[in-house]
Fold this sequence. Notes:
mainly alpha; elongated
Amino acid sequence: MNRRGGGGGGNNSEREGSSTGILTEALEMQRQMCDEAMGLVNAGVAMQNASPPNAVEAEHKLTRAVDIMEQALSIRY
């Protein structure tokens, strides 16, 4: 018996397989977006801490990071 109940028929497992593939793709896309955003955060912080600091470019990178994170977090599963 499968965990979702029922008799373990083939139709459920086929649907679960395609759902799993879609979820995996969405999670991978979200991971890549978060990685990109964190790279921008690190670059922005480095620019803020540089001598002399580049506040304008740092703000640009941090703002872009926030935009990417908001998009990543809005992905529905």
